[in-house]
Amino acid sequence: MALGQNHTTVTRFILLGLTDQAHQKPLLFALFLLVYLVTLVGNLGLIDLIRTSAPLHTPMYFLLSVLSVLDVCNSSSFTPRLLVSLLATDRSISFSGCAVQMALLNIFGTEECLLLSVMAYDRFVAICRPLLYHTIMSKHLCVRLVLATCAVVTLNSVLQTGNVFILPYCGPNIIDHYMCDIPPLLHLACSDTATANVILLVLSASVTLPTISVIVVSYAYILGTICRMRSLQAQSKAFSTCASHLTAVSLFYGSVFLVYVQPDPQRASAYNKILSVFYTIVIPMLNPLVYSLRNKDVKAAVQARGLRLHTRGMCQKGLW
C-alpha cells in the first residue's frame, strides 16, 4: 500500500502561499528573485574560489564548500516554486509532490544541522589540538564525515516523511503555508496524530540533541583554550576563526527553534511562514556573506583572483 493511501481521498493540496494580497505579489516576486540570484552567485562563487585557490585547500574550507553546495540545493528546491506561486493562479501541489518537497526539506534542514556540528568539531581540533590538526582532520576523514551525515539525513528524511504521509487525508486540503511542512500537514490528517507527533519529536531530538551537544562541548573546550592563551593576538585570531561559524549557528538554530518549538504553532502560522522563509531562502544567501566578509583568507583569495584576472586582461590587450 502506498504512503498515505489508506483511506486517503485527497489527491492534491492547496498551498495558500505567503500572501493573498495581489498588490504585494510583484514586489515579493522581485525581492525573492533577487535573493535567489544573490544566493546562486554567492555560493557558486565561493565554491569556485575554494576550488581554485590553493591556500583554501584546508578541511575548514572543504566543509564550507559542502555547506555552499547544500545552500544552493536548498534554495533551488523552494525558491523557484515560491516565485511561480506568486505569479500563478493555480497554487495546488500533488500528493506525491508534497511528499517530495517535505523529504527535501528534511534532508537539507537535517544536513545543515549535522554539517554545522562537524564544522564545530573542526574548529575545536584547529584551536585545541593545532599540532595534530592536519593529522586528525585529514581529507579522508572529512569525506567520511560528510558521507556519514548524508546517510543519516536520508534515513531521517524517509522516516519523517513516511511518518506524516502514512496518515489518511480525507479533507480539508488547504495548507496555510508556501511549502509542505510537517506541522501544517499533521493538522490536516483525519486521524489521531498523537503517535505521529511523538515519533516526530523522537526523530527530531535524535538529530538536534547530539548536534547541539557537539557544538556546545566543542565551544566549551575552545573557550577554555582561548582563555589560557597569553597572547591577545592569538586570542583575537582564535575568536575570529569561530565568529563566522557561531553566527551561522545562531541564525539557523534561532529561526528553526522559533518555528518548531512553540506550544501551538497553528496560532502563529503567518509568523512561522516568515521564519520558514528565513531559514530556507534567506540563510542560504547569508552564509557565504557571513563566511567571507570578515575572513582574511577569503578576502586574500578574492584579491588574488582579481589580480590574476586584471593581469590576464592586460596581457590580452597587449597581444592585440
Automatic annotation (TrEMBL):
**What Gene3D superfamilies does the record tag this protein with?**
Rhodopsin 7-helix transmembrane proteins
Enumerate the transmembrane spans.
27-49, 141-159, 198-222, 243-262, 274-293
- Could you tell me which residue ranges the G-protein coupled receptors family 1 profile domain spans? 42-291
Task: List cellular component terms (GO).
Answer: plasma membrane
Q: Which domain of life is it from?
A: Eukaryota
Please state the span of the N-terminal signal peptide per the UniProt entry: none
Gene Ontology terms: biological process? G protein-coupled receptor signaling pathway; sensory perception of smell
Which keywords describe this protein according to UniProt?
Answer: Cell membrane, G-protein coupled receptor, Membrane, Olfaction, Receptor, Sensory transduction, Transducer, Transmembrane, Transmembrane helix
Query: Which GO MF terms does the UniProt record name?
Result: G protein-coupled receptor activity; odorant binding; olfactory receptor activity
Q: Does the keyword Cell membrane apply?
A: yes
Report the subcellular localization.
Cell membrane
Return the InterPro entries for the record: GPCR_Rhodpsn, GPCR_Rhodpsn_7TM, Olfact_rcpt
Q: How does it sit in the membrane?
A: Multi-pass membrane protein
Database matches in PANTHER family = OLFACTORY RECEPTOR
Per the similarity annotation, which family is this?
Answer: Belongs to the G-protein coupled receptor 1 family.
What is this protein's function? Putative odorant or sperm cell receptor.
What protein am I looking at? G-protein coupled receptors family 1 profile domain-containing protein
Tell me what organism the protein belongs to.
Sus scrofa
